[in-house]
Amino acid sequence: MRSNPLRQFVLIAFLAAQLAFPLVYKRLQARAKEPMTVDPATVLARYGFRFQESAKAAGIDFTHTAATFDPKLSHIMPQVASMGAAVSIVDFDRDGWPDIYVTNSGEGSHNALYRNLGDGTFRDVAAEVGLADVNLPGTGVSTGAVWGDYDNDGYEDVFIYKWGKPELFHNDGGKHFTRVTDQAGLPKWVNANSAIWFDYDHDGKLDLFLGGYYPEDIDLWHLNNTRMMPDSFEYARNGGRKYLFHNLGGGRFEEVSARMGINSRRWALAAVAADLRGTGYPDLFVANDYGVSEVYFNEGGKRFREAGKETGIGAAPKSGMNAAVGDVLNQGRFGVYVSNISEEGVLVQGNNLWMPRAGTSGANIQYDNMATAMGVDLGGWSFGAQFGDLNNDGFLDLYAVNGNVSLDRNRSYWYDYSKVAGGNSAIISDAANWPPLDGRSLSGYQQKRVWINDGAGQFKEVAQLVGVTDVYDGRSIALADFGNRGALDAVVANERGPLLLYRNTVSPENRWIEFELEGRTSNRSAIGAQVKVLWNGQEQVQEVSGGSGFCAQNQRRLHFGLGKASSVGKVEIRWPSGQTQTLAAPELNRIHKVVEPS
Amino acid sequence: MSTGLATVAPKPRSPLGRFFSAENRYLSPLFITLILLVGNLSFGLLESFSRTLLAIGTALSLEIVLGRWFWGKIPNLASGYITGISVGILLRSPEFWPYGLCSAIAITSKYAIRVRGRHIWNPSNFAICAMLLVAPEFVAALSIQWGNTVWPMVVIWVLGAFIVYRVQRFHITATYVASFVALALLRTLITGHPFLAEVAPITGPMYQLFIFFMITDPKTTVTPKWAQCLVAGLVAVAELILRLAHIVNAPFFALTIVGPAAMLVEIWRSSRPAKTHA
Fold first, then answer.
1. How far apart are CA B52 and CA B96, in angstroms?
2. CB < 8 Å to B95, chain A
3. If you count residue pairs, one on A and one on B, with CB atoms under 8 Å apart, how many are there?
């Protein structure tokens, strides 16, 4: 042995340096961050935008109430009844102003439809139009809603999914809604947390995907037993089934999931459809709790093929709670953002940003998780997230909400949660084995994340600086330009908390352009239509969505920030019908209404 | 984790017997590699292969460099390999650097912290605890399962038990498991939580790696068999106390506390001059 005191000393110093590395790393990260208190003018100049929470001032006074299930679950009630707050954007009366629909989950509670009055205020008209009283005892409670014009009459209809009986309402000319669930042929009971409208076969009629969470034979208010929890924290396959409703026309739907290749009992929490491979057909991405995500490639509208493993998406199981797509690097291809759980020292899953690997495309497309490299991985117990150009600089930013159960600030349920979550299926799947929550928090009171995109592959977190300071249990977020002024505002639905409206003030030197599409041969909502804007050597693609994020739907209108561009070269529109359309040099800073050529 | 196997007097054995024997320093590395491959190919156990390879690569590189510098020769790399692969499995982080750093801490600690020529901490146990303490924002310990059926768990238990039996460490594992189950019952009585909730952690892979590879490490366990059993029991007791204090990674910290303490006692006892009788 050639050991001597000097060598030992050098080795100890080397070890100490290694142990100090994380502390230095954190210090450097903290130094790189901006000071937390900056005056609004400086924030606007520095980041190009700032938010101000203004729900009350806008006439929005809504607080979500949670469900109360069978007493057999009372010991963990806040945890099992921790979802249901959802928000979706629609211009239900076609007055040109985006409106807000928000769900409630207490038994007998009312959903709200906030009509945008166009003067910065809103008024709840849900009861007037027949969309309020949808949580009657015995029918389950709402967990989300998606809007789409399923009968192509020009008015957006609404599908309300629930832990309970799903409901379809027809929009009667923007004045009233008629319940058409029974004629539509929808199932009696689904414990769903995700649904999207999309026209998977391009027949011009919107189809519907519905993702089950708890199995559909479970009535959470009348449990036969307590064996209703996931049978694994990472590999659970005992969740609800998936439904694909093919629109037959005439207000009728046919369930075709098995025939179309969608057979999964994973615990779906989010879904989004977009043409991920450039085939012209929408692929389907499903983010699952307690397991890997699934991506269903659309084989020409005739069949779906699950390709999670082969694309790299279905490798490491996490707790998927969000699915949102965005052309993050302005390269004409979509990345997919999936939120997961990160809790210091206990469970650091990190969120996923699935980016298409360079050089792969079409049937051979591969994805890499770039969340850590791009700085959007750590978001607490994350739920909903949406892409949108918040400062109109020409790059998509990302707004993510989080926080699971906020009760006693000083007592955490994490120890007991991790104890059972790591156990075998026989233990974890029985709620009776779960220790009581006993008023403790589980990743509560978390700070939200607003990441701004520098366009060069890095995001910077600025939530506190730009005015997003709430610590409610955020679930669902939707983005919309409520003032028709070229700025994306944010609406956040919080579990057992208030609906928040973050008004966005954007630096006026950044330009923007918006497109409101209406299909003719394609479905009238134009869901699935892609718009590519080319300007100053940049190009960005967006697709009209029938639902994205967590239990959410952004405005259908597409919003593009353009930085300091003085003009747009051209705009290419690809309609779901396959028809393409080009707009030459459209005017900036305005909303363009585009109807599909017949 | 285990750096290899205890040395015993060689006896004539069949090739299979030699393979499954304490002289085979590569039995443990082979077993843990098998666990890693099966776990990842079947269940996606790893964060990614590249992160685990980083952990292994760092451990082996540093073992070569420090071994050459410290001992003047390149040591057998089975120990460094197990350290690296253990870190690659047991550590969870979306970042890359914690895997390299954790392996580096593990190997360096083996050389830097020595008492009378012996290292007193299990390297990967020490390093994982260090990472959990200094970088909790970035890391967590493995907490996921072998799929959602009981069979992978049974296979690992049977194989693991067979191997620790062959390498003469079964008594340590058995003592710890028995202590854990008994103390889980005690925790149930104290907390009022279901017994299955208290016993649940030991059904996960983290514990299987812990009981087959970490607490049985010959280099960082005391020598007499009875003392090994006593220490295993004391680790379980320390874990009980930490669990009652709601420490999530209780087993790692319990071993970090009890293991070196036991080693120091043994070193102290062995350094005392032998009693002479008149």
1. 9
2. 350, 372, 377
3. 179
CA separation for the pair A102, A114 (Å, rounded): 8
Listed in order, strand segments (DSSP E) in chain B are 91-92, 114-115, 118-119, 140-141
What is the model's pTM? 0.93
Residue B155 in contact with partner chain A when CB distance is under 8 A = no
List C-alpha distances in Å: A26 to B106, B113, B136.
21, 26, 11
Over residues B91-147, the pLDDT tens digits come to 999 899 999 999 999 999 999 999 988 889 999 999 999 999 999 999 999 876 666
Structure tokens at A194: 């995700």
Cβ distance of B43 and A435 shorter than 8 Å: no
User: Nearest 5°: phi and psi at A157?
Assistant: -95, 170
How would residue B278 be classed by pLDDT, with cut points 50, 70 and 90? very low
Nearest alpha-carbon partner for A301 in A195, A198, A197, A202 = A202
Q: Check residue B7 and give its pLDDT.
A: 43
Nearest to A347 among B96, B140, B194 (CB): B140
In three-state secondary structure terms, B143 is coil
**A231/B94 Cβ within 8 A:** no
Contact between chains at A7 and B137 (C-beta distance less than 8 A): no
The Cα–Cα gap between A83 and A438 comes to: 19
The domain spans of chain B are: 25-141, 151-270
- Closest residue of chain A to B149, computed from CA coordinates: A425
Are A233 and B200 inside 8 Å of each other by CB?
no
- Which residues are CB-neighbours of B34 under 8 A, at least 6 positions away? none
Say if the ipTM goes beyond 0.90.
no
User: How many CA atoms lie within 13 Å of A422's alpha carbon, on the beta-carbon side?
Assistant: 26
A19 chain-B contacts, CB cut-off 8 A? 105, 130, 134
Q: How far is CA A105 from CA A142, A493, B208, in A?
A: 5, 12, 42
- Residue B11: CB partners within 8 Å, gap ≥ 6? none
Mean pLDDT of A511-532: 98
Q: Are A467 and A49 in contact (CB under 8 A)?
A: no
B143 CB neighbours in chain A (<8 A) are 233, 346-347, 418, 421-422
Q: Which of A14, A21, A377 sits opposite B112 (nearest CB)?
A: A14
B94 vs A18, A371, A414: nearest CB: A371
**CA–CA min distance B103, chain A (Å):** 10
Q: What is the pLDDT of residue B12?
A: 60
As a residue count, chain B comes to 278
Q: What is the pLDDT of residues A569-581, one digit of tens each?
A: 999 999 999 999 9
Rounded Cα distance, A421 and A230, in Å: 10
Residue B1 has pLDDT above 60, yes or no: no
Nearest CA in chain B to A16: B105
E strand segments, A357-488: 367-369, 382-388, 397-402, 408-412, 440-441, 449-453, 459-461, 473-480
Q: Does A33 touch chain B (CB under 8 A)?
A: no
Nearest Cα neighbor of B173 from B185, B184, B161 is B161
Determine phi and psi for A237, rounding to 5 degrees: -130, 25
Phi first, then psi: give them for residue A122, nearest 5 degrees: -130, 155
